[in-house]
Every structure is written in structure tokens, then in C-alpha cells.
């Protein structure tokens, strides 16, 4: 998907240019740093280059390699035309309406001479294309190129596709990737976001300029039927990585002297999210739980963590680092706090021959001091979801010590088993007429990308109870949060059917002979998000991390006052950490007495930049913001 959206943005803008200039007797396209791009051949094959000449520029060695490939393929030679032949000087290959030039873009005088030799006409409509090219050049040189194009061409358009937002965790991983390859992103410090790039082009002589990140492009400039086609192509469960990748790339179009105006990025629909910068009420500081760094199994995502005893946290499942390899994790881990310090350890298996099934995106509910229920989860997104599993813990000491805990697996086939075949769902304890139930809601399955149903599970026999529910039914969702409150459950955020984050909050409360859904109003409106965690403390809903579609910042802690609806956002200060903190696909546990929030795991695949897993648990003290809120 990440490469698809880039190609679609370029194709849309190029074809829009050709359509808008169709009445002109001649037009031209100049692709800067074209590499082995097949754009010319695709346009020619579609019959879209009647009056247009395509010029491609790249380093001489790249241009020579590309020319050799073209000469070896009859289909490509046929598209280039009968006049195809050897070039001279900087012209490596020349065809009927195709010219391939070998020249260093950063040497502007050389580029000018090569283009003049190739008979580029600066008086006819010209489209410049730069796909992830200019950012590798020294900024002063790329600025000069942008300004030169505006000054020397009377009717010009510019299409730019590049990275943005270097400051957050994903951006740091992205920058580190390119630095390790000796291809640093040099433009990012001066032009870190779309607005800065827009100001750049307007200052360099372009009269019109539009920019949008790739989340907006996919949502607003891609027809709904095409979105649905792409979403249905393959089993897909990497929503966080997809949205993060798209929030770190932008497409920009600029023009001057064009009649009518060239505006290919006019959205066909409005992006369903809040506009403008996110206003932060303050910040909280993250501190690493340093003693836990010796346990590599805590580097994971898609897992579940639950408080099984006061100050004792059990973490199960997920995908991560197990003994130096990335895999679906088998080991269970405990974090216990004593004398103000956290200690980590692995949980022993009662029967060493038993193995965890490697599930992720499951839930774990602690029902007693020694018993927990696992519900749902998956191995592969193309396989059927997994059912229910009891975890029985045995402790050889009166105090829960990480060295003295064993676990026994007990597979179940209860009456509610088919309902549990889902993942990215929630299971929350509720009370109805004095009796405790587990409320299973939402998620997704191998068949349904979004579920909006629910089930009241009787805890003893794990069968579904029929309890009436009235009120406005929430939109189906997965990757949401769910918290017990006043005997009911609070559902917040999640990802909806159109793969768009949701900003709604619902309270399911006991009402009459059953339950009632109630929408919870927020002011200002809650920013839509998903893949976050949540906790309730003293009438306040705490939303932790997640993914939203704002490019300007990442979610930290949101505090929602459930009495007044007041919603305040706080950043997480990570200066004390020596590594990027990714707050999606994580778990969190809140210790109310200390007002301490413990973040475990999180991260995932970062497009083509590698996998980042938060290396150790992180502690946040929320005393200041809970008092302030």
C-alpha cells in the first residue's frame, strides 16, 4: 500500500496536467532523478502522450543502465519509437518523444546545458516531477533548482513527493534508516512539514501551491470504490503502520503562469478529522523502568498486559524479540514492583511440553488471584481468530515473586466460542443486577474487517446471556479502548469500517431491565484515534497513545472529565529516553495509589525503514495532570 499510494498520487497529477494542457500544441514533462521509473512507458502505452515529450534526468551511470535495459526489450523500444538511438553528450538515449539525460541535478549549470542540448522549450507548459529526490541534495542546491524552474519557464507546474515530520518516533526511525544508508534527508531540518514546503515554493517564485499528506490524499483524492478495492486486495492488519507511513509523506503541487489554474489536489470529499494544530494543556515526563532492560521478551507489540495482583503485571502474547529473533512470542512475563523498583521475570510453565499458541491482539481478563481468561486473538490475519483459554497461576510463596510463578493452560470450548473468534476487540467486566459478566465488544475477524456486535459472557460457564440493550448503537470498530465504570463500560475511539479513526465515546450503563448506550459529549471534540489504551480514575477517562491522522504531532495522554466533558491533551516528554517511544500496539497498566502509568511494549514495522520495538517498559507519573484536570 505504501508504494501504491505514491504511484497513484503521481499518476493522478501527471494525467491531470496532460488533460488540462490538452489544447496546447506541445507540452513537456521533466522527471528529475527519474531512476528506473516506468512513467513514460505507462503513459505512452495508454496513448496519453500525443503532443508531449518526456525528459528524464539522473546520474550518468543510472541513465546508462536504464538505456541498456530499454535497448534489450523490444516492447520498450517499440514504445520509444523508430527514431530511438544513441544520444550524444549528456543525452544517453533519445526517442520520438522520450529523452534520457545523464547529469547531476545538483550541478545546475550542467543541467541547464544538458536540457538546452536536448531542446527543452521553456515557453511551453512544463511539468517538473521530483519523487523523493530533492531531499537528498544540499538544501541550498535544491532551493536553487526550485527557484530556477520558476524563473526560466513561463508556464510551469511542479510535482513533489517527499518525507515529512522528522521529530516524532516514526520520523526518528525514518531518519536513522536513511542516515545508515548514507542518504541523509537534508531538506527535513529546514522544511519539516507540508506548511514549510508550501512557504518554500511560494517564496521561490511559484504563485500557487497545494500540499497534503498521504492520509488526506487517500481519503480525499481517491474515489471510494478505489479505496474499497485496495482495502479488499489482501488480508491486511497493519493499519497503524499504513497510517503512520502516510502521515510522514506528502504530495505537493505548485504552478505559475497556468491558465486555467493547475489544481490536481482539490479534494473530492472532506477529510473526516479535526483541522488545525492540536492544543496541548501540558506534558508528562517518561522514565524508563531500567531494571527491566535485561528481559528482551518485553520488546513486543500486539500483546496484552493485565494487573493480576497489586503491583504485579502479567504480559502475554504478541509479536516481538524472543532470544534474538522476531517471532510470535511464547514466553509470559511478570513485572512486579517492590520498594519503589520494578523487577521483571519470565513465568514458568506447569507442563514444559505445553506451548502458547502465539496469538496476538487478544485480551486477558483477571478473574481471581490465580485465574485469568484469554479471549480471541489471531496468528495470521488470513486465518480464523482464536477462541478462549484459561490461564491458571500457581504461586509457591505468599508474596508474588517473579521467580516463583508457574502457569497452566486450559483450552476451552464453551458455548460462546464462535463469538470469541475475533481480534482487536475488547473484553470488560460489568455488573448487571448484582452479578458480574464479561462484555465482549467489537474487533474484527478473518471475514469481517470491522465488527459492531457484543456479547454478555456469564463468567462461570462462559455462555452468552441475553440482556436487552437500547439507545444509539455505536458504529462498529476495532482497536478501540474499553474501561469498566460504574458497573458499565466506556468505549472510546477505534478504527471504523472505512479504516478511519473514530472520535466517539459511548457509555453502556445499566438501565431498567437491561443496558442502554449513551453518547458521551466532549469539549473540545475528542481527536479521532485508535490503537490506544485507556483507564478510568476518579471520574476521568485517560486515553494513552494511539494513532491519529494529525501530521503535526502524535497522541500523548488525553484526560476526559466524565462529569463535564472537558477534554485536555498532554504531550509525553521523552527526552530522558535514549530511544524513540512508539505509543501504538502497546499495553498499559495504571496504578491508582501512586497515580503511575506503566507502558509496556509497542511499536512495529516502520514501512521499509525496519522494525522498531520499544526496548523496555516506561513509567509515567500522572499526579500533576490528574490534579490539574
Automatic annotation (TrEMBL):
Q: Which residues form the signal peptide?
A: none
The UniProt entry's sequence similarity note says: Belongs to the methyltransferase superfamily. LCMT family.
GO BP annotations of the record are:
tRNA methylation; wybutosine biosynthetic process
Record's catalysed reaction(s): 7-[(3S)-(3-amino-3-methoxycarbonyl)propyl]wyosine(37) in tRNA(Phe) + S-adenosyl-L-methionine + CO2 = wybutosine(37) in tRNA(Phe) + S-adenosyl-L-homocysteine + 2 H(+); 7-[(3S)-3-amino-3-carboxypropyl]wyosine(37) in tRNA(Phe) + S-adenosyl-L-methionine = 7-[(3S)-(3-amino-3-methoxycarbonyl)propyl]wyosine(37) in tRNA(Phe) + S-adenosyl-L-homocysteine
Keyword vocabulary terms for this entry: Methyltransferase, S-adenosyl-L-methionine, Transferase, tRNA processing
Query: What Enzyme Commission number(s) does the record list for this chain?
Result: 2.1.1.290, 2.3.1.231
From the UniProt record, give the pathway where this protein acts. tRNA modification; wybutosine-tRNA(Phe) biosynthesis
- What's a Gene Ontology MF term here? tRNA methyltransferase activity
- Report the protein name in the record: tRNA wybutosine-synthesizing protein 4
Matches recorded under Pfam families: Beta-prop_TYW4 (PF13418), LCM (PF04072)
Q: Gene name, please?
A: Lcmt2
Q: Which domain of life is it from?
A: Eukaryota
